[in-house]
Amino acid sequence: MNPNGKVPLVELDDGAHITESNAILAHFAEGTAWLPPAGLPRTRVFEWLFFEQYSHEPYVAVARNWIRYLKAKDRYADRLPDIWERGHRALGVMEARLGAHPWLTDAGMTVADIALFGYTHVAEEGEFDLGRYPGVRAWLDRVHAHPGIRPISAPHLD
User: Fold this and answer.
1) FRET pair for 132, CA 20 to 30 Å: which of 106, 117, 125, 126?
2) 56 with 90: CB under 8 angstroms?
3) CA–CA gap between residue 50 and residue 48 (Å, rounded)
4) Under a CB-based contact definition with an 8 Å cutoff, are residues 90 and 132 in contact?
5) Which residue, 64, 63, 149, 138, is CA-closest to 101?
6) Are the beta carbons of 130 and 137 closer than 8 angstroms?
7) pLDDT beneath 50: ranges in the chain
């Protein structure tokens, strides 16, 4: 169903398909407080969604995958320092915003916060020390406290 051959994928009632996690988030957030109406506030949300896909997930999630799921830290030992450096750079960008603001945008909690919460709250499984980012940690607590938010639950891997 996905021409890219990957998940996630959502099939709508009319049979249409939506691919890519952030496109799915934006689609279901349309017309809700999770996605501001057209204009600069919405653009700020999209900036963070693109940041998640290109500056955060490729490093934070990849390190977690290699270490937690593949149990291949040794196999990727030569690549992990670069992954960690870039992941810390992304977490630093988040810290710069969240150290001074409660949410990623001035529109309150949005799908941008949901998207970045996903891998950030489990970043320590990729050996990222979140203690270096007090603004990010406080933000994680705020997101986690929101009704309906659930942490990623990993299958038993040991």
Assistant:
1) 106
2) yes
3) 5
4) no
5) 138
6) yes
7) none
